[in-house]
Amino acid sequence: MVERVRDRVDADPDGALGNTGNAAVRIRGLHKAFGDVRAVDGIDLEVGAGECFGLLGPNGAGKTTTIEICEGLTTPDAGSVELLGRNWQQDANELRQLIGIQLQETQFPEKLTVEEVLRLFRSFYRRGMTLDEAIALAQLEEKRRARVGGLSGGQKQRVAMATALVGDPELLFLDEPTTGLDPQARRHVWDLVERLKQAGRTIILTTHYMEEAERLCDRVAIMDHGHVIALGTPKELIAMVGGEDIVEFAVGLKATADASTTLAAKNAVNSAQDDSSGREQGVVNVEMLKAIPGVQSHRVDEALHQLSVSELHTAVPQIFAALEEQGLHLSEFRTHSATLEDVFVRLTGRNLRDE
Amino acid sequence: MNRLELSSLYQLTVTRFKLTLREPEAIFWIFVFPILLALGLGIAFRNRPADVLPVGATTPQLVQALAADKGLRATEMDEAAGGRALATGNILLLAIGSGNSVVYRYDDTNPDARTARMIADRDIQIAAGRHDPVEAGNQLMHETGSRYIDFLVPGLLGMNLMGSAMWGLGFSIVDARAKKLLKRMVASPMPRWQYLAAYLLSRLIMLAIEVVVLLGFAWVVFGVPFRGRLVELLLICVLSSLTFSALGLLVASRARTIEAVSGLMNVVMMPMWIMSGVFFSPSRFPAFLQPFVQALPLTAAISAIRGNMLQGIPLGHMMAPLAILLVWCAVPFVVSLRIFRWR
Q: Which residues from B are below 8 Å from A167, CB to CB?
């Protein structure tokens, strides 16, 4: 299934790639296996200077392995990485001076103050920001003399970002910068990333939050099982779903006795077979739904039917009518704008956060 | 920021030093514990003046003969009172005189009572006119340097050097690895050798404080002697500390969790606590164990410290322990650099 989808991606116009002449990051044929697990299985990417690029995918998709190869922390089995026109084999020391890194799960010493951590990291770089600048950028002024151990999750994450920024890097790698943060702290980190974007830095971030990728990234690569399965701007990717809106519904049988006779048995999807969600069973004639103008596709997951729809205002009344005609009544019904989550579901048949 | 503040080696060292000082448990184990131990053991094993043994006698003549001896305190009492005093432990021996003979009543399983019997009999015989055929004199020794506390302080110093170096390095390295801080550090342009060098440098600062505190205490409170050159003593301490730091580095070079490193530390240190002569001489172990015991780095460290402090042996004459320390410093250091897990 993934292979099939990959063909689609490869057929994508090259325009989705960044302006290739001025790439800050160039990844070619990257492979990395850990034992039997092929964590990264053939990745080619280019990220333009000044771009904010997102690697989106579920846990285990290979995002972190990819970004850690870029950061020089992991050696690839095959393939090459070029950062700012340099590579890790020859220019490792220089590259470390030029890039800023925020890793997943770094815990800074709890008994150091924010200022002390940043002063330490600043001393590793030949040139960079002053402490005051880094502290101001990460909005940690009130906490500069507080110990790291007493900070909230969001503040700790901003300390990690500040350690990535003290060297005034041209290229910034952020590995899941908002994982585990509450919504407010997450928005705070987003604001910081947006300020960094506006300052013209090239940023590569990984995330498994689609809304984060949609909001922050100029372009997104959706990853799954070590492959890039889709690449483009968030808008382009969402357009791949085929409709701007998603309709979700579940059906139950009508209580009337004659209901069963109206059931269209042929071409029906029996949504009750592996119904673990406790939803009532009802059999839907999918072809009737697909025939409705504006309905692009249909899938069913745990008795929840999902339609991607391009003309929501005209399609929804017809969907109601079609279900009524089949003698079904709705037990659930909702619509939302299509997101990168829907793109992922469409491409893989799985939800982003299933794993 | 001035240039020193921008030096990564300086920042790493200062950071390491601050982190050690901000760990109250570490301060206790490094500074307070050895002093408490020295104080406790020093008091328990202090050299007391020879005990005065209480005895009783039934006649004034006997009391007079016994009272002349400084080692005895004689009281006159009749036989009944003496029996009660013996039973309650107020006296160790009762001399019962009748005419020209004397009978000693005492418990011959009590060493003090046996001593009292010998002294009392000698005093009574001499008072009665005995002459010893051999002229005997005494030379009394109460010299510092031969007391238990003098033996103990170099042992405690060696044990402290080992403990603080190994725990100091082992715990904080593994802690940094478990918290992914090590990985974050090597992703930065920090030179890796500086990270390890900072541990050694901050260790040397701690070492200076540690040695001065423990030895200063032993000197002021117990008057422990320093017969060798202080510079050489300091050199021995520095070498020992580097050796145990290298061992700590080796123990910490692969472990991913604090539990794993704690276990390894104990495996490495336990034999040395027992066999390296902290509390008693390692020569008490049987001959077949001696090559092993003597090859332990803590044995070498403590014997060099004792040689310097107690006997004033110059460094040049202690090549064997110094060579053992050097080997234990170099080999683990080289091995751990090769196998060190940075992430």
A: 188-189
**Distance in angstroms (rounded) separating the CA atoms of residues A64 and A67:** 5
pLDDT at A301: 78
CA distance B104 to B126: 16
- A101·B188 Cβ contact <8 A: yes
Residue of chain B whose Cα is closest to the Cα of A94: B189
Q: Which two tokens stand for residue B178?
A: 């478990």
Nearest to A123 among B6, B179, B181 (CB): B6
According to DSSP, residue B207 is labeled: H
- Token pair belonging to B75: 């009281």
Cα(A252)–Cα(A260) distance, rounded to whole angstroms? 12
Q: Is the distance from CB of A161 to CB of A177 less than 8 angstroms?
A: yes
Q: Which of A96, A103, A119 sits opposite B5 (nearest CB)?
A: A119
B-chain residues near A125 (CB < 8 A): 188-189
The reply to whether residue A105 touches residue B5, judged by beta carbons under 8 angstroms, is no
Distances (CA, A) of A78 to A26, A27, A177, A262, B101: 14, 11, 28, 59, 108
Q: Find out whether B64 and B127 touch, Cβ atoms under 8 Å.
A: yes
Torsion of CA B102, B108, B113, B114, to 10 degrees: 80
pLDDT of residue A259: 40
Q: How many helices (H) and strands (E) does chain B have?
A: 15, 4
The model's pLDDT over B173-186, given as tens digits with 9 standing for 90+, comes to 999 999 999 999 99
Which string of DSSP letters, residue by residue, matches A57-120? --TTSSHHHHHHHHTTSS--SEEEEEETTB-HHHHHHHHHHHEEEE-TT----TTSBHHHHHHH
Q: Is the dihedral of CA A160, A165, A169, A172 positive or negative?
A: positive
Rounded Cα gap, residues B37 and B153, in angstroms: 10
Instruction: Please answer yes or no on whether B22 and A111 come within 8 Å at the CB atom.
Output: yes
Please check whether residue B129 is in contact with residue B108, taking contact to mean a CB–CB distance below 8 angstroms: no
Cα separation, B243 vs B323, whole angstroms: 11
**Would you call A101 and B187 a contact, using CB atoms and an 8 Å cutoff?**
yes
Which tokens sit at A178? 């908002």
The distance of Cα A3 from the centroid of its chain, to the nearest Å, equals: 20
Averaged pLDDT for residues A147-168: 92
Query: DSSP secondary structure string, A314-345?
Result: HHHHHHHHHHHHTTEEEEEEEEEE--HHHHHH
For residue A309, the one-letter residue type is V
Residue A253's pLDDT band, with cuts at 50, 70 and 90, is low
Question: Would you tell me how many other CB atoms lie within 10 Å of the CB of residue A125?
Answer: 21
**From CA A304, how far away is CA A279, in angstroms rounded?**
8
State how far the Cα of A174 lies from the Cα of A256, in Å rounded to an integer. Answer: 58
Q: Who contacts B115 (Cβ-Cβ below 8 Å, separation ≥6)?
A: B53
B214 touches chain A (CB under 8 A): no
| Spatial distance between the Cα atoms of A37 and A31, rounded to a whole number of angstroms | 11
Regarding an ipTM greater than 0.90, the answer is no
What's the rounded Cα separation, in Å, for the pair A23 and A82? 9
- What is the predicted pLDDT for the residue at A274? 42
Closest CA to B217 of B144, B276, B157: B157
**Which residues of A are less than 8 Å from B183 in CB distance?**
73, 103, 106
Q: What's the CA angle centered on A156, arms A153 and A158, to 5 degrees?
A: 110
Out of A104, A123, A124, closest to residue B5 by CB: A123
- Give chain B's radius of gyration (CA, Å): 29
Chain A residues touching residue B18 (CB < 8 angstroms): 111-112, 116
